[in-house]
Amino acid sequence: MGLFTHYQLEQLDFPVLYASAKEGWASTTYTKDPPADARNMSRLPDAIISHVPPPTANLEAPFLF
What highest taxon heads this organism's lineage (predicted)? Predict the structure, then answer.
């Protein structure tokens, strides 16, 4: 494992997206000119949904801010 601890390696486990907000596209592969059918930002919300866990909530508890 060398210089990295288990927790440091765990923090490095995340997806990488390459994007251009100005041109309106996001991709999982590095490219300066994505194909016409891939020129959208759909990869961004897909990555968020698949990698960010949902919040935990108790629906029976009183509402709190």
Answer: Eukaryota
